[in-house]
């Protein structure tokens, strides 16, 4: 996880030049190694760091195609508070069912398990809901969302339709 610390430090040093964000995903072609030297690691993120400025970071090894996207989603879900299926708060979700938060990416000829690789398990959904409920939250009007996304001179048009 040394790489995460380096990326977090880089983000803090250059944050004034970057757009505001809740999470940063860094893609790399470098082979990521786990702390024990395991080369099968393809992504890294801390659990429950989403919206924590400077902490909410993922590093994803670009292994090509859809697999990279799935690893990125997996790491973002860690940041949203979810652990791997089969451990910690996800003990009751079988990792062999191949949901997004399975500890390993694996293909499957089983149609259900293949389909699951694009879905969250009930455990992951529960943990994300718990994480989101723990945050203070902020209500942003449609008008303000538009201005944040597109600039202060944008807003919602009041449309009145009559038939």
UniProtKB/TrEMBL annotation:
Keywords: Metal-binding, Zinc. Zn(2+) binds at residues 74, 78, 84. It comes from the Eukaryota. SUPFAM superfamilies: Metalloproteases ('zincins'), catalytic domain. Residues 1-144 form the Peptidase M12B domain. GO terms for biological process: proteolysis. GO terms for molecular function: metal ion binding; metalloendopeptidase activity. It holds the Pfam family Reprolysin. The active site is at residue 75. PANTHER family: ADAM A DISINTEGRIN AND METALLOPROTEASE DOMAIN (PTHR11905), ADAM METALLOPROTEASE (PTHR11905:SF159). This is Peptidase M12B domain-containing protein.
């Amino acid at each position: 996880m040394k790489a995460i610390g380096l990326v977090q430090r880089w983000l803090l040093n250059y944050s004034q030049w970057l757009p505001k964000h809740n999470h940063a995903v860094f893609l790399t072609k470098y082979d990521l190694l786990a702390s024990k030297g395991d080369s099968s690691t393809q992504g890294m993120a801390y659990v429950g760091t989403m919206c924590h400025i400077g902490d909410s970071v993922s590093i994803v090894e670009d292994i090509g195609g859809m697999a990279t996207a799935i690893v990125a989603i997996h790491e973002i879900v860690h940041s949203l508070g979810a652990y791997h299926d089969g451990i910690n708060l996800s003990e009751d979700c079988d990792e062999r069912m191949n949901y997004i938060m399975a500890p390993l990416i694996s293909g499957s000829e089983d149609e259900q398990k293949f389909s699951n690789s694009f879905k969250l398990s009930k455990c992951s959904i529960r943990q994300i809901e718990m994480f989101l409920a723990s945050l203070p939250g902020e209500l942003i009007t449609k008008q303000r969302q538009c201005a944040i996304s597109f600039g202060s001179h944008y807003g919602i048009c009041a449309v009145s339709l009559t038939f």
